[in-house]
Amino acid sequence: MIHRPSRRDSAVALSGLLAGAAVACAAAAALWPSRAATGAEQPDKAGKNAVVATSTQPPAASSSTPDPVNVTMRPKEIMLPSQNPYTSGKIVLVPLRLTCGLSTIIGTHGEEQAAGQYCRIRVALTGGDAFTHTFDVAKTTLTTTAGTSIKYAYEAQEVKRQPEKIAPVGSHDRYEFDIYYDVPRDVTVNGFTFSDDEGGSTAQVPLPVRDWPFS
């Protein structure tokens, strides 16, 4: 004799199965991560509505270090216009900044008064080939609107501990330094010249003409 369950028993069993399925679906939905939590919906090559993860963290700050030439300007100092490097022989030079109107300079072990006014030019120097060379500050001048040429100020260069000669200038090495000049107060500088130590032609660099307050 075959026992067949009653309709009432079948209904109860079916209800139990459906209830169990509903509980399982609810649990799965609770554990399944939300689409909003994983990313914004954006078109992608993988599909028209592929989900692309997006970060909620702010972008990291740039780790690049700014050029030190552009970090700090000293009193009265101006940035010279960007220009191509100037060359004498194998010495390559770029003028960076200019200052005039300085009455006094102070170093770590001394102080120097200008007979006229101190002018200072900051330059970047490079050796342009695979050999070593020499750069002599004595082979530089500042030119003026009066047509005169001013040699560098030895005492000021010493007080500020800036080089008078770089020897050797290493192959493709870069040097950045100041050169000081004692310029009469009644004239204005309008140029800078330099030459290498091996008979190269003199390079002439125009400088902006302006009035410099004296102090």
Characteristic terms for this protein:
215 residues, 4-stranded antiparallel sheet, alpha+beta, single chain
Question: What would your notes on this structure say?
Answer:
With 215 residues, the chain is of the alpha+beta class. The chain has a domain at 75-206: Immunoglobulin-like (Sandwich). Helix content is 16%, strand content 37%. It has three helices and 13 strands; from the N terminus they run H-H-E-E-E-E-E-E-E-E-E-H-E-E-E-E. Strand 4 (86-88) and strand 5 (91-106) form a beta hairpin. The longest helix is centred in the first third of the chain and has 25 residues, at 7-31. It is globular. Mean pLDDT is 78; it is low at 10-14 and 31-67.
Layout of helices and strands:
Elements: H1 7-31, H2 35-38, E1 40-41, E2 51-52, E3 78-79, E4 86-88, E5 91-106, E6 111-127, E7 133-136, E8 140-144, E9 149-151, H3 154-159, E10 165-169, E11 174-183, E12 189-194, E13 203-206
